[in-house]
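Re: [help] complex structure
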Amino acid sequence: MPTPLPRDPIADAQRNWERHGWGDVAAPMAAITAIMRTQQILLSRIEEVLKPLGLTFARYEMLALLGFARTGALPMSKASALLQVHPTSVTNAVDRLEAAGFVTRTPHPTDGRTTLIELTDSGRAVAEKATAALNSEVFGRSGFTGSDVEDLIRILGEFRREAGDFA
Amino acid sequence: MPTPLPRDPIADAQRNWERHGWGDVAAPMAAITAIMRTQQILLSRIEEVLKPLGLTFARYEMLALLGFARTGALPMSKASALLQVHPTSVTNAVDRLEAAGFVTRTPHPTDGRTTLIELTDSGRAVAEKATAALNSEVFGRSGFTGSDVEDLIRILGEFRREAGDFA
DNA sequence: TCAAATTCCTAGGAAGTCCAACTATATTTC
DNA sequence: GAAATATAGTTGGACTTCCTAGGAATTTGA
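Output below.
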């Protein structure tokens, strides 16, 4: 954990933007930069909690998604769509989860193009452990107040809808 | 741009969390996941704008920081602290900017440990072009309303302070 | 004054992102 | 029914992140 800076670097950047005549967009710039930095902090906390379980956030999300699937299995293309990552990111995550014994790949019974990812017993167990750890260490002490969380859900939900994430 | 999903996957995940008895942390989980996804969308937009200039966001931030420095130069350790990235990330970015002719590395006049990064004329020119493009294509059409931006700055500023980013 | 501790930066590596291109399979169109 | 088009997933690669470890230089403390 590095030493706190004496001043907020993003507030400083916002002032620099204003000073250079870009006042109109200084506040959105600061908001966007703050989102970048907040994501970085949260990801770091999440990875720290998952590391002892041999997981990363990308791998954990895959396991969690499979855990909620009724059959414990999904086509890789479906996982890509729901996790909103590129198919090659799914290939990467599944390669490592398969190597760790947490998932298996099986061919689709009727569609030769499609590979199903299926949770194994040890995958299900580690996903449950990871969820418990994240619930208590990260989500349960998020650093946001109740009304902050509501605001974030509202603001970022509308943003994601406008960005075409969902109908 | 993939096809919009029929429903918000993060709202679905929140309902799954509630259904599994983790209702207390479902909303913070959704807010955090929304931050992750929003960052991904914004980063993708930024990279798309910067790509024609031969820049990435990491490289651009370095150039912008140098642009605001009074002398157009900074020690690498200072850049690491202000950009809030690991020193090895600064090494990586500076390697590429140096190869592109946008910065130069010079030894510190009095401290043998320290390397100064200095903006070149072409680095300054590309940074100005990039800032103009980001201002009009990303920050000027951020996808957030004015009051959203204020809320984000407030909420994420407090979060970053509590996380120890600044005093 | 010198040893210990700290700072600065790099190298090698792991991880995950997406891009471009490819192969295999399925669907659509004529 | 065959060609064209679309879908699914992979491969190789570029990029950026941080981790660990190490070397060089500076600062600190006894």
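The radius of gyration of chain A is 20 Å.
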